[in-house]
Write a structure and sequence with these properties.
mainly beta, Immunoglobulin-like, 14-stranded parallel beta sheet, 13-stranded mixed beta sheet, 3 helices
Length: about 500
């Protein structure tokens, strides 16, 4: 079992002196921590009092080289945890790649007290995989044109002296799988407004970020790249009045953003999901937007879902979402185009309890169309069982006047059919993993299931339906690398696993 210990930064008096940075050979070498200890000319030392390694100056892993951490890096009695510290203002530059992935080894990376550490991946020569690693008190992780997958990692107590997010990215598609971001002073994940990227976010927990209490979201995403942004099965929990849940922006018209957002739980933020800009096409499926009302002034936000379009190419389609107890349910602003359900494809969204006193009375606002396009919203539950009640909580052309969109909402869904009982989580196994090509997928207690295989860029490579509880996939034609397989069965949300080819 991994030893879960939180090592607080110490000032180590015996560490002295600044020195020139060290760069690896760039000849395809894989370096362990012990290798760096022997070959980095004192850039990396071992501190007995901490039973850990310490980086004393800037360090660069050159293109073609690899940095890894393995059980043999452990020294002394600790055999299941490795600490990596830094002394001074240090930047770890990755131009090659990093591979940290051992189920029996937990890695801690943090600066010593009074020191600062930033990790920068720039135009890396190969994708990186970092698993089972705790990043504590860093000054940020920067991803530039570099594909990195983080799995089962903790990101905690990052400052925002150098960048606004714990992880910032540009021109790449980072993958976060089963990670935790908590108590960081800025956003958990962010990008600039003039660069593109399509992050892949699966089953992560984002909670109590933006300790600076500034007006920013926990997930601050810019325009997407060529791939689809996937936000699947995450929990985004807020704490402070100005802090939002998720924002996806294309305010400079530089992207062609596609978003799939499904099976997320977003609660206790200033707002749940905010989409704004020129060209964004989003699909929101089976998400819960609950109590996003921490900012008590409704004029400052409080929407479960807000879609603000600078053109009619800012679109959103919502199906089977729960949107309750926010200040506003859904707000549609300016030129946004929103589909909440058609006669052929009813919405199935559940909206109730979204109310505020912004106009002098306690009024429920399930849907507020402060925009100029009509909205189809057939087949949703509005908090009451008849059309008159729906009309009372939908604000559109009859209430706001000409120039505002008209909502078509009949027929309505007469009852709240949202399931409040959670079934036991679905499990499935894959073997062998890693694989040379053939992979058996076995799903527990399923008579049938659907599967889909994605690469780290979120591209769908293979999908199918299986009658029975087992199937054999042939991935022999795929390039060597890391893939995600999604399995959906028993009317439950999809579950994801990583496959190494």
């Amino acid at each position: 079992m991994k030893r879960l210990v939180l090592i607080i930064g110490f000032m180590v008096g015996c560490l002295t002196g600044a020195m020139a940075q060290w760069t690896s050979a760039g000849n395809g070498t894989t370096y362990t921590l012990r290798d760096l200890l022997a070959s980095s000319d004192g850039c990396v030392i071992y501190v007995d009092t901490l039973a850990s390694y310490c980086v004393m100056s800037d360090l660069t892993i050159a293109s073609g080289d690899c940095l890894t951490v393995v059980p043999s890096d452990c020294q002394g009695e600790t055999t299941d945890a490795v600490g990596i510290y830094c002394q001074g203002d240090i930047q770890l530059n990755i131009q090659g790649y990093v591979h940290i992935d051992n189920d029996d080894l937990l890695v801690y990376i943090q600066p010593l007290e009074g020191s600062h550490l930033r990790i920068r991946f720039e135009e890396c020569s190969a994708p990186s995989v970092i698993a089972h690693t705790n990043f504590l008190f860093l000054s940020g992780i920067q991803l530039i044109g570099s594909e990195v997958m983080f799995e089962d990692c903790l990101f905690q107590s990052f400052n925002k002296n150098l960048q606004s997010g714990a992880i910032t990215y540009m021109n790449c598609n980072p993958t976060l799988y089963r990670c935790i971001f908590q108590g960081n002073y800025g956003s958990a994940l962010s990008s600039a407004a003039n660069v593109t990227g399509s992050p892949q976010l699966y089953e992560n927990e984002f909670r109590y970020n933006v300790l600076s209490k500034e007006n920013m979201p926990q997930l601050n995403l810019g325009p997407g790249g060529n791939d689809t942004i996937h936000i699947i099965g995450n929990r985004i929990i807020g704490l402070y009045p100005l802090v939002g849940g998720i924002t996806i922006s294309d305010l400079l018209n530089v992207g062609n953003t596609k978003v799939v957002m499904a099976d997320n739980f977003i609660a206790d933020n200033r707002y749940g999901y905010n989409q704004q800009g020129y060209t964004i096409d989003a699909l929101l499926l089976h998400n819960e937007f609950v109590c996003n009302n921490i900012e008590t002034d409704p004029m400052q936000g409080g929407s479960g879902v807000s879609i603000y379009g600078l053109t009619d190419q800012c679109k959103a389609k919502l199906r089977n979402n729960l949107i309750k107890d926010n200040l506003w349910g859904i707000t549609v602003i300016s030129n946004a185009v929103v589909d909440l359900g058609t006669a052929e494809d009813p919405g199935g969204n559940i909206l109730y309890g979204n109310h505020n006193e912004g106009y002098g009375s306690d009024q429920e606002y399930a849907l507020y169309v402060n925009g100029n396009h009509d909205v189809t919203a057939i087949g949703n539950y509005w908090g009451g069982g008849n059309a008159d009640y729906a009309e009372s909580v939908i604000f559109h052309r009859p209430d706001l006047g000409n120039g505002y969109g008209l909502v078509t909402y009949n027929p309505i869904l007469p009852t709240n059919n949202w399931s409040v009982e959670e079934a036991a989580p679905m499990t499935f196994s894959t073997y062998p993993n890693p694989t040379q090509g053939l992979v058996t997928v076995q799903v527990a207690q399923a008579e049938s299931f659907n599967y889909a295989v994605y690469n780290l860029q979120g591209q769908l490579l293979m999908q199918g339906n299986v009658q029975g509880d087992e199937t054999l996939l042939n991935m022999a034609s795929f390039p060597e690398g890391i893939y995600l397989i999604a399995v959906k069965a028993n009317n439950q949300p999809p579950v994801y696993q990583r496959i190494i080819r």
